[in-house]
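seq/struct pair 1
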Amino acid sequence: MAKELLYLQQGKRENKFKRRWKTHSVLDIKGRRKMCYREISLFLDMYSQNQDEYNKFIDLFDESVTEYRNMIKDIPDKIEEEVVE
């Protein structure tokens, strides 16, 4: 997958790729995470055969990002609890 992403980045710099499907994501992502999100969603765009399939991949990707954020949000609390005990 890393080689594919490097290929996509190079193609993007050279304007070889155009998005075929519209993204309906509502995530609020900033900075380097937004760049990564765009690269992965471009990969999903190229892989998808139609808008419906792309929407399903984006929904799954967004859900994964949200679940990861929730998991990370809980980690500092657990660390503090272990230190206090």
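seq/struct pair 2
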Amino acid sequence: MPETKKAGTPSVKQLLADLKAFAIHIAATATEQGERIPFIPSRMFSTQEYGGLSLSGEDADRYSGIIAGLLENMGEAMSERSVTKLVQTAILKTLDLNKRN
């Protein structure tokens, strides 16, 4: 039986727009370290092709919220690992860390 999403859960389109805005926000603030001292990451991910990223505080919470929302909308259509990998790749491709260095 298909899962029904909870009332008030953002649509996939809204979540993808939030993911895009989040990735742009991260890219714009990637070099701002002064505000984040001490930096204690709660989420870290990387790929050989696109580099890596550590998130903490509000950024980590927003990242987790996007993934949770997408998982709820996707039901059993995609695994948690697949959704997480796609979100991570979208963020890292937006940052394009390897080309920045």
